[in-house]
Design goal:
CATH superfamily: Exo-inulinase, domain 1
Order of helices and strands: HEEEEEEEEEHEEEEE
Number of strands: 14
Shape: globular
Strand content: 25-35%
Distance between the termini: 50 Å
Structural class: mainly beta
CATH topology: Jelly Rolls
């Protein structure tokens, strides 16, 4: 094995490998697909820059951890949920992330969210089923949503899938790409946030449930989270826009 002499320039390939190792902790998630011009908001090692909401109605324990370079959300204890939020607030931005979403999960991405979860939301359901990828509201009215079934048709089951979301303007113009393909483009006619906020945090949702066994008089989502399942997020990055 040839050793580099002191002061000798490292090959470009070596420098790129070192940068990826430092950024993603040398994990299996190091195969970054982050677009050019984006800045990571998750370091691949720990939850620095993120915190659990203490006021959201989803529950009192988001059950967040970092495993193999990915943020992992589990119900812990079962039945409880929560929101994992960025410490920073954003106004105009593009958000990129990759997710692995097994069947039996109810999650979502919160955009311009308050600490309590008032936000524009993109729905994420296990296996990419149902209205995964649809723009909906959370704790607020929504003048114009973006329903879609296109994500389910192209979902890569058991693999990583990527999303890219752009949000600009006080009355937000929101665009979503799934695995590199634009799915919808919506101009909201007004700012729907109850408090009129034009900035907010990014949130990862772990939806609560009461029981895995359906109960006739239970009011929400009795089968929305399969015991033992988890949702995975990696390569989360953002590009702030004027």
């Amino acid at each position: 094995m040839t050793r580099s002499k002191p002061g000798r320039a490292r090959p470009a390939r070596w420098r790129l490998l070192l940068a990826a190792t430092l950024l993603f902790g040398g994990s299996g998630a190091a195969h970054a697909q982050i677009p050019a011009g984006f800045t990571p908001i998750f370091n691949g090692r720990d939850l620095t820059g993120w915190h659990s909401s203490r006021t959201t109605h989803h529950g009192n324990s988001v059950g967040a951890s970092v495993e193999n370079g990915a943020i992992v959300l589990r119900q812990n204890p079962f039945g409880q949920g929560g929101l994992l939020l960025t410490d920073r607030q954003y106004r105009n931005f593009e958000l990129y992330f990759e997710t692995k979403l097994p069947w039996g999960i109810n999650s979502g991405i919160f955009l311009r969210s308050s600490e309590g979860g008032s936000a524009y939301q993109m729905e994420l359901l296990g296996g990419g089923t149902g209205n995964t990828g649809s723009l909906i509201s959370e704790l607020m009215p929504l003048s114009l949503g973006a329903p879609t079934t296109e994500v389910a048709k192209a979902w890569k089951d058991g693999d990583w899938n990527s999303f890219r979301l752009r949000m600009t303007g006080d009355a937000p113009h929101v665009t979503m790409w799934f695995n590199g393909v634009q799915i919808w483009d919506v101009q909201e006619p007004k700012n729907d946030k109850v408090g009129g906020e034009t900035t907010g945090v990014i949130g990862l949702q772990s939806h609560y449930t009461g029981t895995f066994t359906p109960v006739a008089d239970f009011t929400c989502c009795p089968t929305s989270w399969k015991p033992g399942e988890a949702i995975y997020f990696r390569n989360l990055a953002i590009k702030e826009l004027p």
